[in-house]
Design a protein that fits this description.
By secondary structure, the protein is of the alpha/beta class. The protein has a single domain, classed as Rossmann fold (3-Layer(aba) Sandwich), CATH 3.40.50.720. The chain has helices spanning about 10-25, 65-70, 90-110, 160-175, 205-215, 220-225, 235-250, 265-275, 290-295, 305-320, and strands spanning about 5, 25-30, 55, 75-80, 115-120, 185-190, 190-195, 230-235, 255-260, 265. The protein starts with a strand and ends with a helix.
């Protein structure tokens, strides 16, 4: 039985990854920032195979706790970076835990003698920090692929910039350490949608879906998104977890960063589907998933499926 360590394994995406590995018979260790806040992770013990699950406090900026967390792991999945838009101090709240945390994680795994695979859950921002907007210098019809040169817009949101620089740190580490005997792979999801496995109310992903469903802007930024009816590339959270699991089982893809994406839809149509209505427009393929489909065998669900599930889940919740 292999051991897998998942930083951020109690979050929106992380919970699905945790469930995937538990269901496959792995021993799973999940990191949390504050172990006294059991409401953040207690839902994991309802996923099944709870005897194979352990929870450990971890600060990714503390090398000693990182070493201790990873000490008995064969596979490490790093998705423990904050997903936030409005923060008081971007350097403290985003850049340091995301970029410095990634750099510490890389330093730690280099010391690890028994690790087999390291998987980073990155972001579409590692390819385009202007997301959901296109890169200004590229045509509207441009199909974004893993071959594209990553684009940094320094005027864009701090979260996107932090994920971009974290991915650069991973690429630099791989380039400077050709002698390592384990594989490092990244996956870059677009906007991740679906139901949360927990009842937490602080999920940015769930909040974004509720925002789209309501159609009511909450600030200047979201008002612009609605006014311009911006197109969002979407991916089912279940497909993200499935992809991470398949990366863990695969061989020979060291150094790759796979785009995980389904279709792209205008906000107005996303709102309609979240309200159980048919979309008026048509989807587009803006970000390519061909490499992930070919090399990992993932069959990405149409975005309408998780959007429908999210709407149905809200209806069930309102009756309880």
């Amino acid at each position: 039985m292999k051991n897998v360590g998942i930083t951020g394994g109690a979050g929106f995406i992380g919970s699905y990854i945790t469930r995937k590995f538990l269901n496959a018979g792995y021993k799973v260790k999940v990191s949390v920032t504050n172990i006294s806040k059991s409401d953040k992770y207690e839902h994991l013990f309802e996923l099944g195979n709870e005897n194979n699950l352990s929870i450990q406090a971890l600060d990714v900026q503390d090398m000693e706790t990182l070493r201790d967390f990873a000490s008995d792991c064969d596979i490490l999945v790093h998705c423990g970076t904050p997903f936030k838009f409005g923060v008081e101090d971007p350097k403290r709240d985003l850049y340091e835990p995301t970029v410095k945390g990634t750099e510490n994680f890389l330093k730690m795994v280099k010391e690890h003698k028994n690790i087999e695979k390291v998987i980073f859950v990155a972001s579409v921002a590692s390819y385009n920090t202007s997301f959901p907007y296109p890169v200004a210098t590229r045509a509207k019809e441009h199909l974004y692929t893993e071959k594209d040169e990553p684009y940094l817009d320094e005027a864009n949101i701090p979260y996107a910039q932090a994920k971009y620089h974290a991915n650069k740190a991973v690429k630099k580490f791989i380039r400077l350490n050709p002698e390592i005997n384990f594989e490092i792979i990244s996956i870059s999801p677009v906007t991740v949608i679906g139901n949360a496995l927990s009842k937490r109310e602080d999920s940015t992903s769930v909040g974004l879906q509720n925002l789209f469903k309501s159609g009511k802007a909450t600030d200047t930024f979201t008002k612009t998104l609605f006014d311009e009816n911006v197109e969002f590339a979407l991916v089912d959270v279940q497909d993200v977890a499935e992809g991470v699991y398949k990366v863990a089982l695969s061989k020979g893809n060291h150094g790759k960063n796979y785009l995980f994406t389904s279709e792209s839809w205008k906000i107005s149509d996303i709102s309609k589907m979240l309200n159980g209505e048919l979309p008026e427009g048509n989807s587009r393929t803006v970000y390519s998933n061909e490499l992930a489909k070919k090399e990992l065998g993932i069959q990405f669900r149409p975005a309408s499926e998780p959007l429908k599930r999210f709407n149905q889940n809200l209806k069930i919740g309102s009756k309880d």
